[in-house]
Amino acid sequence: MKKKSSAKLKVRAQWEGVIPAITTPFRKDGELDHKEIARHCRWMAESGSIGIVPCGSLGEGATLTFDEKVRLIATCVAAVPGLPIIPGIASLSTDEAVALAIASKQLGCGGLMVLPPYVYSTDWREMKAHVSAVIGATDLPCMLYNNPPAYKTDFLPEQVAELAAAHKNLEAIKESSGDARRITALKNLLGDRLTILVGMDDCIVEGVAAGARGWIAGLVNAFPEESVELYEAAMFGDHERADELYAWFLPLLRLDTVPKFVQHIKWIQAEVRGGNPAVRGPRLALAGADLALASSTLKKALKNRPKIR
How far apart are CA 92 and CA 226, in angstroms? Predict the structure, then answer.
């Protein structure tokens, strides 16, 4: 077993609120844009986010090298010292995932978002061994990420309960199956043992109604204040306001659940806030019908943008 890092936890992850899964800005030469990364983290923090998730699917984590991930995480930690950084931990190999978890602890992160491995999806015995190795590599608070549409591994409620029983530092789950009934099943099986977070943008109101208490969000990268207000309206029972905001936001939020969600969100973010919407291959810049969809959806949203209270 890997030796646990003894680095001190600076800002501990909290799970009840809006946590952006941030995009990864690139310079024109294709390298990480650390100045823009820091600026973006500060904007998310100032808008009411309770944490930052770098290196996730939206952050093009699969295209980043190990060293790039370490530098990206370090930039995020330095940019918002009062906010927990919760990097996505995914890799082709268990050893590399464990190494990134340990490095994240040493960099001062407040928690980890633990994913199944890239590409390889197999049975519960192997997937349990992989995520258990990552969760057990440090004492950082961990959130399991269940996203069967993207990663082809589905952590069933009974399996999640096994992990929760084995790992005290497993505190939360990001549920992205797209089925709000999963949230009900997790709540019935585990009670309050794990905090459940919605992981698909267009399921936030339904997810909160079913018992979720946090949101790992995507379109928050372009509309952070609207995201926070929508979450709070749903959480605290202001149904009229939640319905109003959700009706406005849904066409944008649905762009988080299509294959080109990274390109869509980066393009919208650049239009709203400025910056470079460049993505790394195999992704290409939006074109044709995809660009037309993003453009028309954003145009309508900006025309009817609600006032934030």
Answer: 36
Specify whether the backbone of 123 is left (phi greater than 0), alpha (psi in -120 to 50) or beta.
beta
Topology (CATH) of 18-237: TIM Barrel (3.20.20)
HSE-CB for 2 with a 13 A CA cutoff: 21
* Range 183-199 average pLDDT: 97
Report how far residue 165's alpha carbon sits from residue 25's, in angstroms, rounded to the nearest whole number.
Answer: 38
Distance CA 39, CA 67 (A): 21
Cα–Cα distance, 237 to 241 (Å, whole number)? 9
The torsion region of residue 237 among left (phi > 0), alpha (psi -120 to 50) and beta comes to left
Q: What is the CA radius of gyration of the chain?
A: 18
Q: What is the pLDDT of residue 5?
A: 40
Per-residue tokens: 68: 């790039």
Which active-site residues does the annotation give?
Answer: 145, 174
**pLDDT tens-digit series, residues 249-261:** 999 999 999 999 9
Amino acid at 90: A
What is the distance between the alpha carbons of residues 221 and 266, in angstroms, rounded to a whole number?
A: 8
Domain borders along the chain are: 18-237
Tell me how far apart the alpha carbons of residues 295 and 102 are, in angstroms, rounded to a whole number.
41
pTM recorded for the entire structure: 0.95
Tokens 């979450």 — which residue?
Answer: 231
Instruction: Check residue 4 and give its pLDDT.
Output: 41
Q: What is the pLDDT of residues 21-53, one digit of tens each?
A: 999 999 999 999 999 999 999 999 999 999 999
